[in-house]
Amino acid sequence: TDRHPLAEDILKAIVFLAPQYTGMQLFEIVDNHEVIKASLLVLRIIISTPEGIEALINTFKDLSPESPILPHLLESLLDEVLRRDKNIILAELLESILLTLSSTQIDLKWSEIVRRKSNQITPYLHQTIVSFESGKERNEHIHWRLCFSGLLLSSTNRYLRDLATKALVIIGRRYPYTLFDVFLQLEKTKDVYVLERLMASICGVFLAFDEKELLFKVCTHLEKNYIENFKTTHVLILDYIITLLDYAEKQFGYKRSLKRPTDDGLFEWGKDPECAKEVTGDGKATWGFGPIEYDFSRYKIGSYLAQSIYVKDAKLPSHEEALSMVIWRIKEL
């Protein structure tokens, strides 16, 4: 059907008058997807009062990922954050919603919106970076400013991800405690892009950080959740963590929870007897071609087990010994 020429004006009037006459927002009164989607088009009216913002967050923070209004809500929230600086508090609702989405849902329902609006988001991030670098930033809602930048890390636009990461580092250097608090929330996001860049921002801040207490707290969390429990095999993420742990250990004497091989590590590691039996003598096991054996036993695992770096003529384990030692260590962990 044709849309009534006064439909938008009528909708604005209803959205504005509903809380005045009922004490509730229109989306709290009418349980209809089409009405709710239409009211989100005039979201700025709803969030013009603290009561409207509170009602919006409380109503939609547990919204189902399958809800048909989800894309409309995400886009309206993003538009409002970009439109007006004070609307950064809407990042609270964005965070609540995005933490419930799967990686596929984030790609299809959030990252796609970010992609379409990258021309608006890019200058927003530039302005944020400049304001914090110059010391002219607004020092309110720092948590949600960091959170919003963190949520943009799911973008498939690498330049935008780079800007968002830089924003996290620039703000995080001024507010490291807040950055870590935001990290603890956003690391739950089911998107490896987000986690990888969050780790990069943590490194960017804490590798230049000299407050031992917070640094150790960060290292303990990362070691426990990503090294001991092995949450990810993402090479960059693990490299960021190990780099930070090495820095804390060397500069401030951080004690790791897991014992690492030392220069004489070859003698400290045991050998798994079952593995050793399978790969020696009977010819039943085939472990790959010669180049794999050479690389694995000598330059990679072998040199790590024997000493910190490869040295010619150093006592390196055989291919079979290296395998049995790795299996032993896996069982130990």
Q: What can you see in these coordinates?
A:
With 333 residues, the chain is an all-alpha fold. Helices cover 68% and strands 0% of the residues. The chain is built from 19 helices and no strands. Helix 7 packs across helix 10 and helix 17 packs antiparallel against helix 19. The protein is elongated and about 85 Å long.
Key features of this structure:
333 residues, mainly alpha, 68% helix, elongated
- Tell me the span between the first and last alpha carbons: 66 Å
Structural class comes to mainly alpha
Radius of gyration: 27 Å
Q: Biggest β-sheet, characterized?
A: none
Overall mean pLDDT: 82
SSE order and pairing:
Elements: H1 7-22, H2 26-29, H3 33-40, H4 43-46, H5 50-60, H6 70-83, H7 91-98, H8 103-116, H9 118-133, H10 142-151, H11 158-174, H12 176-186, H13 192-206, H14 212-228, H15 235-252, H16 265-268, H17 273-279, H18 290-306, H19 319-332
Helix pairs in contact: 6-8, 7-10, 9-11, 10-11, 10-12, 11-12, 11-13, 12-13, 13-15, 14-15, 17-19, 18-19
Provide a concise account of the structure shown.
By secondary structure, this protein is mostly helical. Helix content is 68%, strand content 0%.
